[in-house]
Amino acid sequence: MAQTTGRVVGAFTASHSPGITGWPERAEPAKRAAVESAFAEARSRIDALAPDAVVAVSVEHFTNFHLGNLPAFAVATSDSYLGPVTKEMGEFLNVAQHQYPGHSRLGRHMYEFALESDFDPALVEGGLEFDENFCVPFKHLDPESKYPLVPIIVNGVNPPWPTVRRCHDFGRMIRRAVEAQTEAQRVVVIGTGGLSHWVGLPESGQINTEFDRDFIGRFESGDESRLLSYTAEEIDAAGNGAHEIRTWLVAAGSVQVPFDVLAYEPVPEWLTGTAVAAARV
Amino acid sequence: MSSKLPKVTGRDMRGVMAYPPTPALPGADRVDAENTVNLAESERMIRSLIRDGVDAIATNGTLGEMGTLTLEEWKAYATCVVETARSEDPDFPIFVGATTLNTRDTIARMRFLADIGATGTLLGRPMWGDMVAPIMERFYRHVAEAVPELAIVVYDNTAAFGGVIPRSVYRTLVELPQVVAVKYAGGASVGFRYHNDMAHTRTSFPLMPIETDWFPAWEMYGEELVGMAWSSTTAMGPAPVLALRDALREGRTEDARWLTERLRWAHEPFIVGQDFFEFAKYNIPLEKIRVNAAGYMDVGKSRVPYTEDLVPEVHHRTTMEHVERYKQITAEIEAKLGSSSSRNAERV
């Protein structure tokens, strides 16, 4: 029997600040409960989708790349990934250090398909290690690390950043890549980063709820013209960490449907506007 | 093994560590220049910084021209700054750079520094070969064990040394009692890795931020973790930076927030905050341009091959704008907060 080609069966997005797992108790109990409940709901939906692989889109926090070599996009193709990168970071994030499985064949295909689609991501064949970028959301979304990952890095931390439209296009490319292979039949895309937050700046701890709620509104509407109209300067108003919403744009591009925001809570104790969302696939 | 240990520990490191350039005599930018260090100005510079209230001094990083001094010039300068500091205060923490291209040369220089009474060394790492984590760990372990009485401020400069310090190396550094601080690379983007690096070092020694990042770091982690900041801007006159220190120590949060905003505003035109790797090309001459223009000290020209004539004009212009802003905020801060006893500018 001929194998059918793969499909993106779901897409999810979430914030990933260290406090979500490292010091959850510092948040107001109601906010913590809302966020953790949303994560649980997303986890349940992912499990119900029974994915063969997860394309995990996050940002780099200078664990693997640095300012002298910071790709706009990178695709990793390993069989496994260490995270958190050290035991000490594991204690800090309250995530036990372990190996996350990788879907190397889908990763390799994704990279080659990207090149054929006029994207030129960096190829990371080994050595990519995780910090809170993946470890924090996946503690909630896949606590047993049972789904093999294709990690994708988007520069959302240091200018110049890829445009939001380019990120969305990258997501659309991901869907076409999934549909052009048979190794992984059922694929879930998870984008993680943002929302408003300032990192290493005097504004740290502030939340721009106006920006966050406006962004959520655009995300829920599925209106691409509104979602893709952001300039870098407009995102800057929500902090240098807000540029991580590019990961959400990649996830949105992979499904091109409205999302349901399962929770949004401004949590100064976690230094981040914290949200979890699921695509209406 | 020697039982000798440094006179200071990481827990002792508090306040502002000044990073001044190496003063140069006229003609120091010539290829055939010899004995280029302006020792008289070096002595005046060290006395001024100490009397005006900085808490420690480190020389001979990148802007301190570790890479462009001859060995004899370096020895003369090191001797001058250490003897001057000792004459001001026998316990003043004075760190002199000893970064070279290999372990053995660095050890030789560290022994020289120990012999002349330096508190410690500001130490980058050999950069000719790609220094992956195991090599870096062994380098710092070797030099610490070879000269155990000398404290080490680890110098983190992503441009000069080709990347960040891997987190596995921080695990080694906390095991070495000689390591008392890390001069952490500046820039807001480092905030993304700061907390994870600090998870390794905790209270063993401070990961010193640049003064413009100090307030948010202090707010988040407190004096126990980030009690010391580094500042090359102090070479333009330390008063604004010391005002920030005093506000932090005294819990005057709104003053500290305002001072940080003013310092950041003053730095806005300076290329380092906009494009660190572009800055890194002209780091040495740009620092000298701004320091000379500020008028607090006379550090002369930078030495070959990193001379001022190759700096693009736009960087000259924006650096001067930065200097003007710094002069403006110095006056604003004086008018608003006055001079604390620790900031009386007793010029030498």
TrEMBL record, chain A:
Pfam families: LigB. GO terms for molecular function: 3-carboxyethylcatechol 2,3-dioxygenase activity; ferrous iron binding; protocatechuate 4,5-dioxygenase activity. Keywords: Dioxygenase, Oxidoreductase. Gene3D superfamilies: LigB-like. The keyword Chloroplast does not apply. It comes from the Bacteria. This is Protocatechuate 4,5-dioxygenase beta chain/2,3-dihydroxyphenylpropionate 1,2-dioxygenase. Its EC number is 1.13.11.16, 1.13.11.8. Residues 11-270 form the Extradiol ring-cleavage dioxygenase class III enzyme subunit B domain. InterPro entries: Xdiol_dOase_suB. It comes from Lipingzhangella halophila. The keyword Oxidoreductase applies. It is an enzyme of class 1 (oxidoreductase).
From TrEMBL, chain B:
GO terms for molecular function: 4-hydroxy-tetrahydrodipicolinate synthase activity. InterPro entries: Aldolase_TIM, DapA-like. SMART domains: DHDPS. Residues 1-21 are annotated as: Disordered. Keywords: Lyase. The keyword Lyase applies. Belongs to the DapA family. This is Dihydrodipicolinate synthase/N-acetylneuraminate lyase. It comes from Lipingzhangella halophila.
